[in-house]
Structures are given as structure tokens and as C-alpha cells.
Design a protein that fits this description.
There is one protein chain. The chain has 257 residues and is largely without helices or strands. The chain has one helix and two strands; from the N terminus they run ββα. Strands 1-2 form a two-stranded antiparallel sheet. The model has no long low-confidence stretch (mean pLDDT 76). InterPro entries: CIMAP, SHIPPO-rpt.
Length: 257
């Protein structure tokens, strides 16, 4: 048991006389039991009375479902057909067909049949220039060019061999890499100490000097002997705080501007 010097006042920790609800964690009223009224979400462990629902009025039956008395059958129609005397209808008189009228001698023009029956000389007519002919744009003399007489593209005369200067092609040259294999510089040199015996290595460090009078040394105030816990037992340490309960409402403070 710890000493009484760590407590303030007459209060000391003790066992509670009765159960405290805040010490026990339970779901509480967040889970609701199923009800005993109604048909939806009824308690399955309890008896449920029969339930009746209020129906709605059915739609009107379709009037075209059966012939019924909708159709009016004439009185002169029997199962053997139409019964009664022959009936005739009154209609208008049809038009008489026109008589064939043959053409007379004055209907013909024999003077207009000279070119069809007799030989006639050629005849020419004078008419205006049509608009379609003006839209045709024919090329002028300057549109055509004569073939050149100099150079390799001469179509009339023979030309001497010509040569062009171009860059060296990589395909087919003497330095073309056909196998596409890496060269000696593509590999990294392996450290020989990996597959051979490695000799001892020494490193060069700076020279250490003995601190003199001009060296900066820590004073008495640089040490904290009260924090040393290696040579003696450490005193108990406490933090300022309290245990928060999930049932305590948060503290709200209205700050007026």
C-alpha cells in the first residue's frame, strides 16, 4: 500500500459500497425491443392476432369483353341470311360517252412536211450566246512549261550521272550491330574482394587533442542529478488529468464576442 503522503485531504481510494452504472459498459437504450402492436416488426416470441386489411374498389370491367346487347342486329337478318324482297337503289343517270370525231381536211398542214418528205438544203439559225459557254476556263499559253534541258529530270536529252551527299546509314554499314549484344562497357566491374580474400582496411580520422584551458567544458548547472535513476530508485510520478466517462456530456462554454 502506498504511503499517505501522496494523497491530499482525508479522501482515500476505497471499494464502492454498491454497483455503479458508469463502471459497467452496456449498450443501454440504443437497442429497441420489437413491438407487440401491428403486423410489421412484431415480436416473434409473442402470439400475433389475425390481421385484416382494407381493400380498394376494383376497377370497372372492360366493356369490350363480350358482345352482349351492344350490337344491334337488323330485323331482316336471320341465320339463313337476309330475308325479304329484292330492293333497288335510286342513282343518277350516267353520262353518255362522247362520239368519235374524225379530223377533217383542214386539220392537216402539208406545207410543213417539206423536210420530212422532200430533200431540203441545210439551214442555219442565229441565236444568242449561251451562259454555259462562258464558265469554261481553258488554260492559256503560259500554263504549259517546257521540260528542263539541265539536270537529271530531263525527258528529251540525256543527262550525266549525278551524285547526292547524304548521311551515313546505320543499316548495312560496317559498324552496324547485327547481334544487338552489350559491349564491355555495359557491365559493371565486380569488386575483387567478393571472390578473393579481403585484406584488413584502415580508415584515416582526424587527430584528437587533449582539451586544454581554452576548451569549452560543461559547468555545474549543465548536470541534472535529480533525474538520475540508474543509481537509486525513481520516485513515483503523476500527471494532472482525470478519467473521462462516456456518459458525461461535453462541457460547452458560450463565449460572447
Amino acid at each position: 500500500m502506498q504511503s499517505d503522503k501522496y494523497w491530499v485531504g482525508t479522501w482515500r481510494p476505497h471499494k464502492p459500497r454498491g454497483p455503479v452504472a458508469a463502471l459497467y459498459g452496456s449498450p443501454g437504450p440504443k437497442y429497441a425491443l420489437p413491438g407487440l402492436i401491428g403486423s410489421a416488426q412484431h415480436d416473434p416470441t409473442k402470439c400475433k392476432a389475425p390481421v385484416f386489411s382494407f381493400g380498394i374498389r376494383c376497377e370497372k370491367a372492360n366493356s369490350n369483353s363480350s358482345p352482349g346487347p351492344t350490337y344491334l342486329i337488323p330485323s331482316n337478318i336471320t341465320r339463313r341470311g337476309r330475308n325479304g324482297t329484292p330492293a333497288f337503289s335510286i342513282s343518277s343517270r350516267s353520262k353518255q360517252p362522247l362520239l368519235f370525231r374524225a379530223p377533217g381536211p383542214g386539220q392537216y398542214s402539208p406545207e410543213n412536211s417539206e423536210k420530212l418528205i422532200f430533200h431540203s438544203p441545210p439551214a442555219y439559225s442565229l441565236s444568242g450566246r449561251s451562259k454555259a459557254g462562258s464558265t469554261k476556263q481553258l488554260p492559256g499559253p503560259a500554263t504549259y512549261t517546257l521540260p528542263p534541258m539541265l539536270g537529271p529530270k530531263s525527258a528529251v536529252t540525256t543527262s550525266s550521272p549525278t551524285y547526292t551527299l547524304c548521311g551515313r546509314s546505320k543499316s548495312g554499314s560496317f559498324h552496324e550491330d547485327m547481334a544487338k549484344s552489350p559491349g564491355p562497357a555495359a557491365y559493371k566491374a565486380v569488386d575483387p574482394y567478393i571472390y578473393k580474400q579481403k585484406p584488413p582496411h584502415f580508415s584515416m580520422t582526424g587527430r584528437n587533442f587533449i582539451p586544454g584551458e581554452a576548451a569549452q567544458k560543461p559547468g555545474p548547472g549543465a548536470y541534472c542529478p535529480e533525474r538520475v535513476t540508474f543509481t537509486r530508485a525513481k520516485a513515483p510520478s503523476f500527471t494532472f488529468g482525470l478519467r473521462h466517462s462516456q456518459y458525461i456530456s461535453p462541457f460547452i462554454m458560450d463565449v460572447e464576442s
